[in-house]
Specification:
The complex is a heterodimer of chains A (306) and B (322).
Chain A lengths: L1 H14 L3 H41 L19 H29 L2 H6 L4 H34 L4 H31 L3 H24 L20 H10 L4 H12 L14 H24 L7
Chain B lengths: L1 H16 L1 H41 L18 H29 L2 H6 L4 H33 L7 H31 L3 H26 L9 H4 L4 H8 L3 H12 L2 H13 L10 H7 L1 H23 L8
Helix pairs in contact in B: 1-5, 2-3, 2-5, 3-5, 3-6, 3-7, 3-11, 5-6, 6-7, 6-11, 6-13, 7-10, 11-13
Chain lengths: 306, 322
């Protein structure tokens, strides 16, 4: 256990010193800061657009329907964060896990490390602790930025703050899966480019391909927190594809749960969706599956080779 | 020139021997087929929905005022363009990174340059080999898209539509080559290959996903599923009148979108494929005339990254890492 903690501490120190990690973290932090303003600005403008449209309708003798934008929940300002977590957060997590898996190999110290009294389980535990802590720190930083930026723009109550931190806590579980995938790939693949490509292909599939199959969303359509309207219920074939693929569409389960936590609705596709608990369970299963992949990758890791 | 051709042939062979590119090629083909199948099913669903509503209206003794959904076959390729935007750029980045990785890992760059091979030969040889490979991938994607449209959607393409499809492939080739040059430049300029790859992916993330996403989510019409103006039964003219009062907001939104080369590529491809309804039925030259700026920006991005590549390769200290 002591060795594991030493490895974890070492991992954390080195990750925060890595320039590429810092660069991705800076992009993520900047977008976290911007997301509250983007949310506030578009919400503020759409309210004015509705008022202008309603006035035009009244001038034409028509009755304007009630504003669909009235009574926005406070945290709807952060709806873009669900997307930034799946995009930037996903890539940040992959690069974190990849760097952790590749570090000893690239430094050529694998043989040296395992010549000391360090077991494979201790090494793995140390790495996992390091990755988990770094991602938790990133999520905490994002939560703090979101809290401050949202509080400047709207008044938040205690419930909002709890929701905000729960959202980032849940996002940590989702991202940990990608980090573990990057870690496993770095342990088992010889070619460092291929090792990075494999988790990225998984990320593309989870973020773009599966939502297209389950909800008939165009790949870039799923980047908008307000989903475009696609009614798949009219097509039995689309319904069948939805039924078969939806349980594996991790990013959709994540976004649906995140929207529930933030108390903002995600509507549009009219496709049947899982209940809240099932979404949470699926996301945890994704993370545990990736954890199992890390154990398998560690078992097949050739200590004498690197 | 002969040296460039030899290097190009060697590049091409190396790419074909690399298993990962078979994966990326198969991935792109599978994604093209998936998007055509899903789009066809969505169109069928729209027709069924229209016919159900029509029957209901007839049963009520009313006349329908909405036109029947009309199939424009090239519209079904929207998802395929989205994937070329995302996965095509990834392919370009990987090729650009790997072409330098091969030289760095085997420490052969110095050796090549001790032979009567100029740096220009080296750059053009590498570009030619990779451009040929990307061209072949795109020909496969185009053929696959054509066959999917014919076999899945039962569409018959006119000669003009085939030319439009070919033009989309040409602009896609330029777009992917720009990312190739970017990754090659970063791999030459940075000591660590994986760091260069992550920096390239970060730039890709910003240009391909973040900037277009910000512009898209700021669009007032995108705040309601199915469109805000559609929900209050406003036509395009009424929408324009309302948005004219928010011109500075719209200008800012458009500016953010236009910072992304991907958006310029997308606008050109969407116009050629008629995904924006106003371009359906428009003459090809008129479409190109309207989209000249977007085409120019895509070309400029390619030119700038290629020039950056050439400049960095000409620096003497570039061989230090060898």
């Amino acid at each position: 256990m002591k060795n594991s903690i030493t490895i974890a501490r070492h991992e954390i120190q080195l990750l925060f010193r890595e320039r590429t990690f810092i660069m991705l973290l800076a992009v993520f932090a900047a977008m976290t800061l911007a997301s509250a303003y983007i949310g506030w600005s578009s919400q503020h403008t759409i309210d004015q657009v509705y008022t202008a449209a309603a006035e035009q309708m009244r001038q034409n003798g028509k009755l304007a329907s009630p504003s669909p934008f009235a009574d926005y929940p406070h945290l709807s300002l952060l709806k873009n964060m669900m997307i930034y977590i799946t995009l930037i957060g996903g890539l940040l997590a992959i690069s974190t896990g990849y760097a952790a898996g590749m570090r000893e190999r690239k430094a050529g110290v694998v043989k040296l490390l395992f010549s000391r009294p360090v077991g494979i389980e201790e090494f793995l535990l140390g790495k996992l602790l390091g990755i988990a802590f770094v991602l938790a720190a990133v999520m905490f930083l994002a939560a703090a930025i979101s809290l401050v930026s949202s509080a400047v723009l709207v008044s938040l109550n205690v419930q909002d703050i709890i929701r905000l931190f729960s959202f980032y806590g849940f996002s940590w579980v989702y991202l940990l899966g990608f980090a573990l995938l990057g870690f496993s790939s770095a342990l088992v693949k010889d070619d460092e480019v291929v090792a990075l490509l494999i988790p990225i292909i998984f990320w593309v599939a989870i973020t773009f391909v599966l939502p297209e199959l389950t909800s008939a969303l165009y790949p870039t359509g799923s980047l908008n927190p307000t989903l475009p309207q696609t009614d798949i219920l009219q097509s039995t074939t689309l319904q069948t594809i939805h039924g078969a693929v939806y349980p594996f569409s991790i990013s959709e389960h994540y976004k649906e749960t995140a929207a529930t936590i933030l108390d903002i609705g995600v509507a549009g596709t009219n496709a049947p969706v899982h209940s809240g608990i099932l979404n949470v369970v699926t996301t945890f299963c994704w993370m545990l599956l990736c954890l199992a992949a890390s154990f398998i990758a560690m078992q097949s890791f050739d200590k004498s080779r690197w | 020139m002969n040296n460039s051709l030899i290097i190009a042939r060697k590049e091409f062979k190396d790419i074909l021997h690399s298993g990962i590119f078979r994966i990326v090629l198969l991935l792109l083909l599978a994604l093209t087929a998936t998007s055509v199948i899903v789009s066809s099913l969505v169109f069928e669903s729209q027709v069924t929905s229209y016919q159900t509503s029509l029957q209901t209206l007839k049963d009520l003794g009313k006349q329908p005022n909405a036109p029947e959904p009309q199939l424009f076959p090239l519209n079904l390729l929207r998802g395929a363009v989205d994937y070329l935007e995302i996965v095509g750029a990834i392919l370009g980045i990987l090729l650009g990174s790997l072409t330098i990785a091969r030289e760095k890992n085997t420490q052969t760059l110095k050796l090549i340059l001790t032979r009567p091979v100029s740096r220009k030969d080296l750059l053009f040889g590498k570009m030619l080999g990779n451009a040929t490979f990307i061209g072949i991938v795109l020909v496969f994607v185009g053929l696959f898209a054509f066959l999917s449209l014919v076999l899945v959607a039962g569409a018959v393409l006119t000669l003009t539509e085939i030319i439009k499809l070919l033009l989309v492939l040409v602009i896609s080739w330029i777009y992917i080559m720009a990312f190739f040059s970017l990754a090659e430049f970063l791999s030459l300029g940075m000591r660590s290959l994986s760091n260069a790859l992550i920096v390239a992916f970060t730039i890709w993330l910003v240009f391909v996903l973040i900037l277009p996403q910000i512009g898209d989510t700021m669009d007032p019409d995108n705040q309601v599923p199915g469109g805000f103006f559609n929900s209050i039964h406003f036509n395009k003219e009424q929408e324009k009148q309302v948005l004219a009062r928010f011109s500075s907001y719209e200008t800012t939104r458009n500016f953010i979108e236009e910072l992304s080369v991907t958006k310029h590529y997308e606008r050109t491809a969407f116009a050629l494929l008629g995904i924006k309804p106003e371009f359906n039925g428009m003459q090809l030259l008129d479409i190109l005339g309207q989209k000249w700026f977007d085409i120019l920006v895509t070309l400029l991005f390619f030119a700038v990254t290629t020039f950056a590549n050439y400049s960095i390769l000409n620096k003497k200290n570039i061989l230090l890492w060898d």
